[in-house]
């Protein structure tokens, strides 16, 4: 039996029009373990039920080293919002959930790969692209390493960072072309483009027809250790991220999304470096999804030097695109009209969450897509961002 067929232990078909196939893959057979640095990386699965940490540690002697959960969560979690939260669902849940000791993986189809410029580039960002321009990261800003990409984001630097937490507003922006994409995300960054040693961990939502063949809002992750050249990919398309959750499909569509002047929906993202094992864990809402092993990084094997939060649009067209960022409206329109990221925090060396210091704002073309920041007792540190792209003031 070939390698791909061995992966699919159970299958659920999405009942939605997007045609996603979600395969429930045994946790030990996921793509991450094909990474050459993870050949000896094992997950110890529980063989007896437990309700507390003490019961888990007494369950079997080997459980002290199992990788199904982090050793520690960050302290000082803050969410002062007085706006009620809404459950986030994925369409494939209508057919059920994956069994214990499996993970849901969105199946890659032949037509998905054929849409890419090459098989080798499928699921990868272009080399030297993907983050807002920061002088310490882009060694030559005049080289326009991020050409085709426009950002509206906030950035914190000047310290060692061990993670971040933020609540990201969900939208479904309209794209000018199926070759464009639009997203809202957070970036955890170390290194620089110089020497192609940029390390990033990224998570958020995006609308990306070229990758998924639809315009749904989808949960995504990304990583690289070589400035998007050779290493890293979206979701679980290549080796790297180890998923431990059997409820959430990374790359799956998420709903509901916000409406202009209507109901607003958002979701918490938390990424932190486990002080004991050094792995970078991801939690989305209340779901612990898994981790990026420290071994796949260079700079991020220790800590990050920069953290960013915001939006991005991309178009391969040399001219300005009308692809929307966020809601497609500028930040000055405020709540229920502009896209936001609130409760922005960073994690320090003591594994505690705190407000970021010295936040700077980044927008390559503020007349097309812009960002504003603020602070309040309800939202902590926050930004509004977005814009319509090409228009009367954005030729």
UniProtKB/TrEMBL annotation:
Protein origin, superkingdom: Eukaryota
Domain spans labelled Neprosin PEP catalytic: 143-395
Coiled coil segments of this chain: none
Gene3D superfamilies the record matches: Outer-capsid protein sigma 3, large lobe
PANTHER family: OS01G0973100 PROTEIN (PTHR31589:SF231), PROTEIN, PUTATIVE (DUF239)-RELATED-RELATED (PTHR31589)
Protein name per the record: Neprosin PEP catalytic domain-containing protein
Organism (species): Eragrostis curvula
